[in-house]
Give the backbone structure.
Amino acid sequence: MQAQILVTGPAERPVFHLTNGQISYIIGITERAAIPEQLYFGPAIRPQDSYDFLIDRENRNGVLLFAQDPASSLDYLSQEYPSYGHSDFRQPALQLTYPQGDQVTLLSYVSHRILSHKDPLPGLPASFGQAPGDTAVLELQLKDAGSGVRVTLQYAVFADVAAVTRSARLEQTGPETVWIDRAMSLALDLPDHDYELIHFYGGWAHEMNLERQPLQHGIYQVSSLRGVTSAVQNPLIALARPRADEFQGQVLGFNLLYSGNFLSQTETALSGTTRVLLGIHPDLFRWELKPGQSFQTPEAVMVYSQTGLNGMSQAFHDFYRRHLIRRPAGKALSPVLLNSWEGCYFNFDQDRLVSMAKAARDMGIDLFVLDDGWFGHRDDDTTSLGDWRPDRRKLPEGISGLSRRIHALDLQFGLWIEPEMVNPGTPIWEAHPDWVIRVPGKSASPSRNQYVLDMGRPEVVDNLFDQLCRVLDDAGVDYIKWDMNRHLSELYSHALPAGRQREMSHRYCLGVYQLYERLLARYPDILFESCSSGGQRFDAGMLYYAPQAWTSDNTDAVARLKIQYGTSMGYPLAAMGAHVSAVPNHQTGRVSSLALRSTVASFGTFGYELDPARLSAAEKAQIRLDIARFKKLQPILATGCFYRLISPFDQPDFCAWMAVSKDKRQAYIAAFRLLKVMGQERVRLPLAGLDPALLYEVRGPWQSGTPRYGDNLMAAGLILAGNKHDPNRQPDGQQGDFAVYTFTLEALAQT
Ligand code: GLA
C-alpha cells in the first residue's frame, strides 16, 4: 500500500488519517479553539468517515479554557503540539516569551497542505522519500491569535516502514520580536501509561547499555547538555508494553535526528496519560525570532512495532537505510578498512604507513585509513588541532603523495580529521582568540588539551572548509573519519550579544552540519564515518551526513557484544563501525581469539585496527579467509534483517544474534559463549526470521548435513555443543572461554 493521508470531516474541523497499511496516525481538530488533537497512533485501522468515537471528552473540573465548559481543560486533551500558558500544566512542546513578558500561547488550526514529496529541512538532517509516491507529507498551519506567531507542524509517512516523522517550523508574521524558550520536534500524548521505558546509558568505552524500567508518574528525562548527544544517554527511547519482549508485544520507538543538546522525555500526568516529548533541550536554549524570521526544529521519528523490540529495531533500521542515510554513489556497501590508530598511534612515517597498507592489501583489505597525527606537529595529543597542514617530517610528500602511494597499491585511502577543535599555539588559536568557545575573563576547561571552535560562526566554518579543501582537493581521499573528542563547556560566543547567548549550542550544531554539507557537495564520492571518542555522537542526525559511525573506542570483542547489541536497538549494523584489534586488547587487556574478534566485527562495518607487522603468518592467512568470508556475507549483514537471539544484558555468559537476507533465503548466525560453564554442554538456540516453509542447508559446527525447514530451525533450534572439557585441546575460539560458533543457512533451490 502507498503512503496516504486521508482527510475527512468538515473543512473547518478536518480529520487527518496518515497510513501506509502498517500503521495509522490520526489527528483531529477540536470543535472549540481548533486545537490539533491526537486521536490514534498504532496498527493500521480501516479508514472511516468519522473518528468521533476516538474523541475522549469528560467533564472535569480544573482550569478551563472556556467558562461553562467543564470539558475544556487542556490538561486532559491529547494534543499534537501543546503550548505553555493556558490550562495544560504538563510540560509543553512550545514555550514562547512575548514582548510584554508573558508566555501564554494558544495554537489554532488555520489550514493544511498535503504533498507527495518531502523537501529537505534547511540546514538540518531530514528524511526523504526514495521514489515518487512512496512518501506522503502533511503540513498543519496553526496560529497564535494574539502575536502573529505561526507554527507549521510537519508530518511524513512512508510506504515501506512503520514510521512517522515530525518536525515544526515557527514563523513570526506579527510586528514584534518573540523569544522561543522551547520548541520540541515531537509531542505525543498516549492514552495510558502501561509502558516500560527503555533507554540507553554509558560513557567512554562503554556506550549504549540498555536500561528498562516501569513508567511511573512524573517526568523522566533522557538528555544531554554536553553540546553533543554523548554516550551518557542517547536520544533513542522506547515505550514497551510490560509483557513485550524481543519478539512480541507493542513497542513504540522514538528518536531525534539531531546531534546536539537533546531532551527525550516522558511525563505521566494526573489523568494517567503519557506525554512523550523529543527535541532540542530547552535548558541552554532560547532563540530570538524577529518579525519575518522563521525557526525550524530538527526532525524526530517514531516507529510502531507489534512484534516487540525486534520489530522496533527493524523499523528503525529500514527507516535509516532507506530514508535517511545518503551513501556515496557506487558505495552501497562499506569497504573493509585498516585504520592506523591502534596499530601505530602517533608513531609513524610514510614508509611505515605504506608497509602497513601493503600488508593490508595482501590480506584483502579495501581501504587504508590514516588516523590522528598527520598534521601540524602532532606527536601526541597536546598540539596542532586546527592546523590542517600535513606534517612534512612524517609525510615528506604530503597527503597527496601518501594517497598516491596507497592508491598505487590498489587500495582506497582515508583520513582522520577533528575539525571542530583547536589546540593552543596553532595559527588559528593565535590569530582568532575569539573563535574559541570560552568566556572573557573566566577560566576555560581543557579536555584532552583541546578547546572547541565556535562552529556557529560562519567565518569559522569557512576557514575550516578552506583548510580542508587545500588538503583534499588533489589528494583523492575516499573516506574521512570526522572525530570530535570533547564536550562543550564555558559556553559563550563572541559573535552573539548577551541576550542571544543561548542560541549558541544550536548554532554550533548547525555549523557542524553546514561544514559536513559543504564537504559532501564538493566531494560527493567521499564516505564519511563520524566519531566522537568512540560513540559519543552516535545519533540519527549524524547518519544523514556520515553513513557510518565509530561505535566505541572499546575494541574488545567481549565488551563490544553489549555495545553493539545495545546500539542495534536503534541503529543498523551497516552504520556501526567495528574493527578487529590486537590482543591483549588495548582497552581491557583481554585476550580473545581471532575468531571471536572477527565475528563480532563482522556484525558491523568490519575492519581492522592493528599493526599487520605484528601478525604471524598464520594470523594473516586466517584474516585473508575472514575477509573473503565477510565479503560474501556482507549483503545479508548490511541490507538484511537483524535478530537478537540471546541478550548479553540478560545472560552474563551468552549472546547470540543473526542476520537474514530480505528474501529469507540466506542467514548468518553467531553464538558467543563467554565463559565455559559446566552443565551447559548442549544448548538449543531457536532461530528467528526464517521462512517456515523453506528448506535450509545448515553449515556450522555439529551439523548433520540434513537440510531443515525454517519452522524446525525456529522452534527446535540449533544445537550448540562443544563446551565439554577436552584436555587435548587448547582454547581455540570454539572451546574454552570466549568461544564463538557461527552458522550459515542457505535455502535449497527447489523450495
Ligand atoms: C578518538 C577516536 C579514536 C582515535 C583517536 C585519535 O579517541 O575515538 O578512534 O581516532 O581519537 O586521537
